[in-house]
From TrEMBL:
One of its GO terms (molecular function) is RNA-DNA hybrid ribonuclease activity. This is RNase H type-1 domain-containing protein. It comes from Triticum aestivum (Wheat). InterPro entries: RNaseH_domain. It comes from the Eukaryota. Residues 1-59 form the RNase H type-1 domain.
Length: 91
């Protein structure tokens, strides 16, 4: 798994996240990770994680749950396509 949140990666590797506000999220990730033969959390710079950043940014602006069943929404499509070919996407 890749994230641009260095603190999350450091908490994961230290296994001392019981007092962190993100502890419930890390505990859920830990439970889901048991389903895989190998699981690792790595830090990447934000520009390398642009599709996820755009989703988080969008989620912070809406007051309801949003989901996409068939294809990514327009605000995300350019970034997803660029990510697939290894290009740099426009924010």
């Amino acid at each position: 798994m890749e994230t641009d949140c260095l603190e999350m990666v450091q908490l994961w590797h230290s296994r001392r996240f019981s007092r962190s506000i993100v502890a419930p999220l890390l505990l859920e990730i830990d439970a889901l990770a048991l389903s895989f033969l190998y699981f690792e959390i790595q830090h990447v710079i934000r520009s390398a994680n642009l599709p996820a950043h755009l989703c988080a940014k969008h989620a912070s602006t809406i007051g309801v749950t949003d989901r996409w069943m068939d294809s990514p929404p327009g605000f995300l499509m350019t970034s997803v396509m660029a990510d697939r070919v290894g290009a740099v996407a426009v924010k």
